[in-house]
Amino acid sequence: MATARLTPETGGLRLDAFLAKSLPGYTRAFLKGLVESGGVRVDGERRAPDFRLRGGERVEADLPDAKAAAPSDDEFESWVLFEDRRLLVLNKPAGLLMHPLGTSWLTRPEAARADAQTNLAALLQVHRPAILRAGTPRCGIVHRLDRQTSGCLAVAKDPETWSALTGAFSAREVHKIYRAIVRGVPKGASRVKAPIGRASGHRKIVVTPFGKSAETAFKVLSRKASAAIVEAEPLTGRTHQIRAHLAFLGHPVAGDPEFDRAAGAPPAPRTMLHARRLSFAHPATGRPAAFAADPPADFAAYWRSL
Questions:
Q1: Which of 16, 43, 73, 146 is catalytic?
Q2: Mean pLDDT computed over every residue of the chain
Q3: What pLDDT does residue 66 have?
Q4: What is the pLDDT of residue 104?
Q5: What CA dihedral angle connects 291, 153, 241 and 250, to 10 degrees?
Q6: Number of domains in the chain
Q7: What is the C-alpha to C-alpha distance for residues 111 and 108, in angstroms, rounded to an integer?
Q8: Residues of the chain with pLDDT under 50
């Protein structure tokens, strides 16, 4: 990991546009994701990709070594929780992008391999090429985890499995359980039923009366003086639902670049959210299938540090 230190000479540019102009070796999509994940600071503060620079600020960007970021065969295989001829379930590491931004990779999958940032769509082409040869849509990806979220992720290995799993997600027949380290200590078990959507004129997803219906059940598993580990069960499948609902409760996920503004709290290395468990009917047999992954070392280490 290397830190690029930049200073805009003039103002007016968006932060992501300035980075793309100053760092030609990286795509704008990658740099935008880097800003959103907290890997860029302006005068020491996190900013949104559309933040307008005035000129003269100190811009720092943490840039991964692309060769070091690409996993070896052994490392990729270590992510595998389950595999058969129809289904692959991975324990996705935090920091791994699901796929490039934009749509070019959907019609030309090889575009995912050309992206500046390592992403799962590209890795599946390298480590499981049969998925693409079978004509599986979206390189087998049937659902998403945020880039900084770790944990259980299902991948379809053929078009029939992809259709069955995407249908199960749409019908809310897939059961998901997450773990999160949150700021403050919630009172106890709760259920949030509040619509979420993009804030007017922004990319940020928040609770808003103009959003789509969303419901999440929460349970406190462990407490400390100013933080807690929470189990979250999304009963609907909206983008950023858990993060938005926890922020609505006043207990944002530690390290969340959109919501975590805890002054004086130890900074988290990433968004402390982990997909702990995933269960559904196996597309081939119809039998119940459940998969689990323990939170990774950085999650446990950060909890100990609080």
A1: 146
A2: 90
A3: 45
A4: 84
A5: 70
A6: 3
A7: 6
A8: 65-68
Residue 132 lies in a domain: yes
Q: SS3 for 77?
A: helix
- Radius of gyration (C-alpha) of the chain in whole angstroms: 20
What is the per-residue pLDDT for 304? Answer: 94
Which pLDDT score, from 0 to 100, does residue 36 have?
82
In angstroms, rounded to a whole number, what is the distance separating the alpha carbons of residues 187 and 189?
7
Q: Which one, of 120, 117, 96, lies nearest residue 25 by Cα?
A: 117
Cβ–Cβ under 8 Å, residues 88 and 141: no
- Find all residues with CB under 8 Å of 94, minimum gap 6, and list them: 147, 148, 149, 150, 270, 271, 296, 298
Whether residue 286 lies inside any domain: the answer is no
73 annotated active-site: no
Say if 298 falls within a structural domain: no
**How would you label 141-175 residue by residue, b for 16+ Cβ within 10 Å and e otherwise?**
bbbebbbbbbbbbbbbbbeebbebbbebeeeeebe
